[in-house]
Design brief:
66 residues; 3 helices; two-stranded parallel sheet; globular
């Protein structure tokens, strides 16, 4: 999903995932500095997705060349 998000958006854009499942798209959006909205009707998947999303933090770059 990271590849697709990179192809179709820029930093700061909003990514919508209407079927969030385990949160992969939202995690990718977060790591790529995109805003995101995820929707899921199954409460069990909401818990899974929230835990996954909260676990991942974007890594800081040591150098900014571009």
């Amino acid at each position: 999903m990271s590849y697709l998000i990179t192809l179709g958006s820029r930093k700061g854009d909003l990514i919508l995932d209407p079927f969030v499942g385990s949160g992969t798209t939202c995690v990718s959006a977060k790591l790529l500095s995109r805003k995101y909205i995820g929707m899921e009707k199954d409460d069990e998947y909401v818990v899974i997705a929230r835990n996954r999303i909260d676990t991942y933090e974007p890594k800081e770059k040591e150098h900014e060349f571009f």
